[in-house]
Write a sequence for this structure.
């Protein structure tokens, strides 16, 4: 019972954070002293399916990384993607390499929330994947000892390792 309550409380805070982060960003952007022409870059309209993918990904925040894990007790990066897409009724393969082969490749300028981002963190083929959630950020299960979290794509670590973006929708 305590475990169910903890999951329920965590889910509540994740949902609250999901709505509060964009709201805070809007407030901060509105307070900016550098006016911009926003008419040329409207906010993308998300389909219900894309919104569900983003919400489902955010609902997995703080789940521990477990290599080969595929449930709420622990996930690896590709299991996170597979699980999130399954929750919205879409089938994707299990491993990051299989997902990379199956996804429709898109340019970085075409990426939308709900698309996937593929990385090569070691020399060689794709070995890491995450779900893009907008504003240059993605949700992923990074490595042993960590938890599912949000990170920016444009860091000195992730930027050079990003190979391509993909779409399953």
């Amino acid at each position: 019972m305590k475990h169910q309550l903890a999951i329920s409380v965590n889910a509540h805070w994740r949902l609250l954070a999901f709505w509060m982060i964009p709201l805070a960003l809007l407030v901060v952007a509105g307070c900016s002293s550098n006016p911009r022409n926003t008419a040329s870059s409207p906010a993308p309209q998300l389909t219900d399916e894309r919104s569900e993918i983003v919400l489902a990904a955010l609902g997995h925040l703080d789940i521990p990384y477990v290599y080969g894990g595929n449930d709420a007790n622990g996930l690896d990066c590709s299991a996170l993607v597979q699980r999130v897409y399954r929750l919205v009724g879409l089938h994707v393969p299990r491993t990051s390499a299989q997902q990379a082969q199956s996804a429709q490749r898109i340019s970085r300028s075409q990426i939308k929330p709900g698309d996937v981002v593929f990385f090569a963190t070691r020399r060689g083929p794709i070995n890491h994947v995450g779900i893009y959630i907008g504003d240059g950020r993605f949700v992923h299960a990074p490595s042993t000892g960590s938890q599912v979290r949000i990170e920016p794509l444009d860091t000195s670590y992730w930027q050079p390792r990003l190979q391509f973006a993909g779409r399953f929708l």
Summary: The first strand starts at residue 70 and ends at 71. Residues 7 and 72 are 10 Å apart (CA to CA).
